[in-house]
Amino acid sequence: MSIILTTTNAIEGRPVQQYLGIVAGEVILGVNVFKDIAAGFRNIVGGRSGKYEEELRKGRDGAIAEMLQYAQQLGADAVLGIKLDYETVGGGQMLMITASGTAVKLA
Questions:
Q1: How far is CA 90 from CA 10, 15, 31, 87, in A?
Q2: Burial track 74-107 (b if 16+ CB lie within 10 A, e otherwise)
Q3: Which residue, among 51, 55, 68, 67, has the nearest Cα to 28 in the 3D structure?
Q4: Looking at the whole model, is its pTM more than 0.90?
Q5: Contact predicate 81/11, CB 8 Å
Q6: Which of 5, 50, 99, 100 is 20 to 30 A removed from 24 (C-alpha atoms)?
Q7: What is the 3-state secondary structure (H, E, C) of 12-79?
Q8: Interacting residues of 12 by C-beta distance below 8 A, sequence separation 6+
Q9: What is the pLDDT of residues 33-75, one digit of tens each?
């Protein structure tokens, strides 16, 4: 059975039986990513940088995967109220992407 991931605080027709705790995953994209992205700005089409978006997507997916791993270890059926956060760290040289939510058992 797969774990349900949602940004909502409830799943219709599936009441929460037990709250297992907060789970989170973090990914930090280093300075080389920004150099690669800057080099890719030549590939901007319609005001969008495909390379930049690809790196952000990889980071987001990694943070969600880590969060999911912790939820699985707790025996969760779902993670509710998922929030994604993007923040620069290390004097703006790195980007931290965090995914967090509440792991629950559903009825």
A1: 36, 42, 10, 10
A2: eebbbbbebeeeeeeeeeeeebbbbbbbbbbebe
A3: 55
A4: no
A5: no
A6: 50
A7: CCECEEEEEEEEEEEEEECHHHHHHHHHHHHHCECCECHHHHHHHHHHHHHHHHHHHHHHHHHCCCEE
A8: none
A9: 555 555 555 555 556 666 778 888 999 999 999 999 999 999 9
For the stretch 14-27, pLDDT in tens is 999 999 999 999 99
Domains, the chain, ordered by start:
4-106 (3.30.110.70)
Total residue count of the chain as it appears in this document: 107
Rounded distance between C-alpha atoms, residue 51 and residue 43, angstroms: 8
> CB under 8 Å to 9, separation ≥6 — which residues?
80, 81
Angle between the 31-39 and 50-74 helix axes, to the nearest 10 degrees?
A: 150
8 Å CB contact between 51 and 84: no
